What does this fold into?
Amino acid sequence: SQQGEEDPQALSIQEGENATMNCSYKTSINNLQWYRQNSGRGLVHLILIRSNEREKHSGRLRVTLDTSKKSSSLLITASRAADTASYFCATVDQGGKLIFGQGTELSVKP
Amino acid sequence: DAGITQSPRHKVTETGTPVTLRCHQTENHRYMYWYRQDPGHGLRLIHYSYGVKDTDKGEVSDGYSVSRSKTEDFLLTLESATSSQTSVYFCAISEIAGAVSGNTIYFGEGSWLTVV
It folds into this structure.
């Protein structure tokens, strides 16, 4: 069964706009990670946030984590056409198992 | 890019035939994983290995077996392929268990398998 559930399933925006994707999960986690997948390619790790952290930044990426609500969000600021991809959240439980959500397909139009 | 090579990258096979997918890494990472990716299901863990000859089941292991005789190679075998095993298969590696304590998991480029 899926641990992380992403919302929305698909998102279409214009270049320069911000993109926000949300992830909800069900059980206690050690950390939560976001991955990116370009069409026909493997997944690439973007950012990790630990359970005791609330916010983390990496370049144009901002991730928040609310353990009380069991949710996380990924914000991509000033989006570019090259950001078009699928984005997955993945939760890591205390045993180290990595479980992925179904992903959000982001389309950034030039 | 992490040194992960999956082979074959694309394969079409008939129902009932055995199929083996190979994952080869050059990073000397201890942990290796096989995932399958299907629309509406994200990535699901099939099997993983935490060392040579040490493997364990994931959430969708039925119909699959694995072997790891060398650190660098992790084989996924479909003993008798079925149409429900048509999927994209990803190998992944990590230095330590899962992704605890910030360890990153690196993914291969995927193997597209079609069972007809």
Summary: Chain B touches chain A through 25 residues (CB under 8 Å). Chain B has a mean pLDDT of 91. The radius of gyration of chain B is 13 Å. The CA atoms of residues 10 and 112 of chain B lie 5 Å apart.
